[in-house]
């Protein structure tokens, strides 16, 4: 870290549109006070920087020669593309030259590079992907959304502890409520894994409110929802898909007659506010928690706003010393987490 | 069965509003040619029948003295409330006096009564709840949405076989496409249970298209989506919750100014069509498949339209001999289903 400002390494080649989307987004974050290191093909990056009048901003460029494609397998990306933008960006964090990394590239490869290049915080059994999602009221953190499958109760407890810190330090929630995602609110409802996790959560320092159901995620009445990555990934993609479908159907219906078109025009401001509430871009990416350094995984289709917000989220995470709080929280619960076995790591990537 | 018309036993006391909602819904189904047996408190039922001018329709009434409350435990409902409307309705099916049962009462109790009073079709390891959900195009069948947790691969295959019949016989899909719900499309993505199920599905006669993801459920590109009941129940409730939240937010925004109110009025028809697409009431209830006789579980908050549609769905199921097709399909795949062990039954109810 060259100075007090958080420095975020940004994978300029990631996402479906690469530097053309990523660089303007990074420039915008730099204007808001984040130090940026853009990692990728230097020529393309410089061209975009010039086009976005980035002179005078705290933006470094690190040239790399390889790109991880969307269809590359994570293990291959790790072994065969050592000079890829995402791997080099992670290395900058490991070497202390940046505080966090943001990528909209191949998610599996980003997770794998994060895991193996950065390494886990001591005591972390499995790093987990958290997703910050909009609700009717405050945003909710859903964890894990796909870094792990077949998790054990002790893993789930750690997911909850890490998301609790995210909710406090990044979203500013004072004492986040934490729920276990299940299929009934009463204790004793759920599958074997959730039932076995209940007592661990109850014994922890978390503000545990018991089981929550699928319908509770979007009410905004719970701040952190904990689940295995298989369930969380399905929930996340289902939500994205359903919100997208509903928007599409609504647009189609509103265009179906002159009258409804006129009506839609008059209600434009309402629609914009509606879109803002259901818009994932508001929050940007999914932070991979539990590593020595933060990695934020963005959607491949991220627009500039989503990328900028992901970079700002990473910066807030660093500024508010979330890492120290995370390590302390895990440490305080070591005896609980060790109870139920750490098991081997089943990466879903 | 007194004649060719399917006869459906309807739990008149079920749902948040009992006979007041259920009886008019049943009357409407009777007008469309379904023979009905209303089960519950005779006085209340007769009053509602009179209020809905049901004279001349093929509607029987069977009096019962007990009601399963929403907070009753399924096992208690089964043991201590033998004269409850839901248990008696199931008994009518077992005794051949009705062809199917529809209830909006306590879901867990309905599932338990179905399981224990009706019994399983020979060869069925675990009956499963199917949900028919609206999409951008054709409806999709999601199975299991909560009758089982910790399912095994052979259970999942049977869920797929049963939902395939539902899709053909009730929704009229000629050769339904069947997908396994997972967290990546490629074979080998998913948790241990899904990975172990993939080959079973591939070896079956199903029109198996491989893994599908959460985002694929609502595109309408797959007819049947198979998953464990823990995942399916979360997916179902999440969808209901998200669709409800989006509707609520949209309404709030549209009422926020005079201009947007006016716009909303002009677009009213479009909104109505939108609601129709995302409205679960279109399809009614969730059929519990694999029993000797059909039980359809409806949402406690079901409106009359949802109840009527659930009764019509049950009648179509019977008319099209779905039960025979279901038994035949399971029989043809017996060697596959027996491979991966049936295991003990973990009811989620």
Which bin fits the share of residues in helices of chain A?
Answer: 40-55%
What topology, given as strand order, has the largest sheet of chain A? 3-2-1-4-11-10-5-6-9-7-8
| CATH class bucket of the largest domain in chain A | Alpha Beta
Question: What is the molecular shape of chain A?
Answer: globular
Count of helical regions of chain A:
13
Most extensive chain-chain interface: A-B, 65 and 65 residues
Write a structural description:
The structure is a homodimer. By secondary structure, chain A is of the alpha/beta class. The first copy, chain A, folds into two domains: about 5-125 and about 280-325, Isopropylmalate Dehydrogenase, CATH 3.40.718.10; about 135-280, Isopropylmalate Dehydrogenase, CATH 3.40.718.10. Chain A is about 45% helix and about 15% strand. In chain A, strands 3-2-1-4-11-10-5-6-9-7-8 form an eleven-stranded mixed sheet, sandwiched between helices. In chain A, helix 2 links the parallel strand 2 and strand 3. In chain A, helix 1 (about 20-30) crosses helix 2 (about 40-50) and helix 3 packs across helix 5 (about 105-120). The first copy, chain A, is globular. The interface between A and B is large, with 65 and 65 residues. Chains A, B: InterPro entries: FA_synthesis (IPR003664), Phospholipid_synth_PlsX-like (IPR012281). Chains A, B: It is an enzyme of class 2 (transferase). Chains A, B: Pathway: Lipid metabolism; phospholipid metabolism. Chains A, B: Its main location: cytoplasm. Chains A, B: It is found in: Cytoplasm.
């Amino acid at each position: 870290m060259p100075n007090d400002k958080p420095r975020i390494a940004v994978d300029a080649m990631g996402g479906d549109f690469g530097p053309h989307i990523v660089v303007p987004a990074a420039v915008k974050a730099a204007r808001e006070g984040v130090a940026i290191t853009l990692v990728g093909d230097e020529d393309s990056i410089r061209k975009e920087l010039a086009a976005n009048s980035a002179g005078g901003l705290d933006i470094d460029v690190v040239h790399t020669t390889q790109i991880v494609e969307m269809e590359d397998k994570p293990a291959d990306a790790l072994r065969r593309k050592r000079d890829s933008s995402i791997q080099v960006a992670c290395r900058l964090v490991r070497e202390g030259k940046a505080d966090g990394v943001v990528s909209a590239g191949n998610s599996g490869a980003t997770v794998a590079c994060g895991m193996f290049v950065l390494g886990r915080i001591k005591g972390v059994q499995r790093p987990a992907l958290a997703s910050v999602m909009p609700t009717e009221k405050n945003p909710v953190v859903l964890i894990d959304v796909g870094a792990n499958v077949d998790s054990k109760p002790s893993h789930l407890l750690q997911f909850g502890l890490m998301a609790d810190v995210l909710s406090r330090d990044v979203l500013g929630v004072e004492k986040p409520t934490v729920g276990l995602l299940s299929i009934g609110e009463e204790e004793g409802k759920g599958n074997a894994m959730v039932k076995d996790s209940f007592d661990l959560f109850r014994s922890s320092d978390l503000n545990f409110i018991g089981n929550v159901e699928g319908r509770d995620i979007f009410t905004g009445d719970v701040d952190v929802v904990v689940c295995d990555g298989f369930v969380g990934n399905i929930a996340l993609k289902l939500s994205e898909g359903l919100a997208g479908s509903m928007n599409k159907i609504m647009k189609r219906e509103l265009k179906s007659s002159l009258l409804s078109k006129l009506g839609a025009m008059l209600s434009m401001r309402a629609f914009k506010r509606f879109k803002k509430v259901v818009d994932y871009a508001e929050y940007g990416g999914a932070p991979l928690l539990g590593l020595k350094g933060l990695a934020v995984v963005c959607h491949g289709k991220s627009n500039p706003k989503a990328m900028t917000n992901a970079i700002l989220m990473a910066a807030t995470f660093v500024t508010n010393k979330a890492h120290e709080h995370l390590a302390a929280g895990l440490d305080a619960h070591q005896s609980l987490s060790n109870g139920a076995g750490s098991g081997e790591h089943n990466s879903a990537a």
